[in-house]
Amino acid sequence: MLTPSNILVLDEATAAVDVETDAMLQTTLRSPLFANRTIITVAHRINTILDSDRVVVLDKGEVVEFDKPQELIKKQGVFYGLVKQAGLDTSESSS
């Protein structure tokens, strides 16, 4: 992860770690070290991607939604349901 690269793909990178380790990794990924990189994240933990620039929501292998997380929440579609199910804040002020 620390070798400079324009694109970083994380496929369930935090699935097998505890919440504290996940938070540490998220902080690192949001640091200046990764500021000018494209990060593609495959995740089931919604909080992992809630502050991403864009989110692609898949259902049965099909793209069903694509937009900024807050825009998807406003639309109250699939992503909104996942955020609510995770017990996360769905208000516009959470951006």
Automatic annotation (TrEMBL):
GO-annotated molecular function: ATP binding; ATPase-coupled transmembrane transporter activity
Source organism per UniProt: Colletotrichum higginsianum (strain IMI 349063)
Record's subcellular location: Endomembrane system
PANTHER family on file: ATP-BINDING CASSETTE SUB-FAMILY C, MULTIDRUG-RESISTANCE LIKE PROTEIN 1, ISOFORM I
Superkingdom field: Eukaryota
This protein's UniProt keywords: ATP-binding, Nucleotide-binding, Repeat
Main subcellular location of this protein, as a coarse class: membrane
Membrane topology: Multi-pass membrane protein
UniProt-recorded name of the protein: ATP-dependent bile acid permease
GO CC field: endomembrane system; membrane
